[in-house]
What does this fold into?
Amino acid sequence: MKNVIHYAVVPAPAEQTPPSSLVLLCLASWAIPGAGHLWLGRKVKGLILLVALPLMFAIGLAVQGRLFPFELSWADPLVCLAAFADVGIGVVYFAASALGYGAGEVRAVTYEYGNAFLIVAGLLNLLVVIDAYDTAVGRK
Amino acid sequence: MHSHFVLLVTFAFFVSLVFALLGRDSPREQVRFGGLLMAGFLAAGIVLGWLMYGFPL
It folds into this structure.
C-alpha cells in the first residue's frame, strides 16, 4: 500500500483579518500616512512613511503649489483629478486647507514643482494604502 | 528653494524612498533599489532637460 501524504491548506493568520478591520486599516492608512504599517507592526517602514510623505506635501506647499478645488469643468477637467490626488494624503490635506495653505502662486517659478510634490505625495500615499492592505491579507 | 536642480533631487529622493520601501522587503535591497531609482530619475531629468534646451519657450 502506498503512503499518501495529505496536505491541508490552512490560511495564514493575516488572511483571517475581518473585513471591518481591513476597512479601518485602509482608512487609518489613508488618513495618516504610515499608520497602516504601524498598525501591522512594520514600525520602521511606518515611521519613515509618516515623516516622508507629509514632508513632501509640506515642501509642495512651501514652494507655492496649489491645492486644487473639486470643480468639474470641461475647460479644465484635469483640475478635478488633481484635487483627488491631493486628497490622497489624508488628514494633512484638510489641515493645510483649514490653515489657509495651498492657495498657489501661479507666477512663482516653483509653482509647477509645488503641484508635482502635492499631487505625487497624495498618489504615493494611495499606493501605501494598497501596500498596507496587501500586507494585512497576507499577499506580502 | 528656487533651484530647479535642488527640487529635482528632492523630488527624486522622496519618490525613490517610497518606491523602495514598498517594492522591496530587506533593507539591503531597499537601499540598492532606491539608489538605482534615484540615479535613474536624476539621469532622466538631466538628459531630458538637455534635450529640451534647444526648444524655445
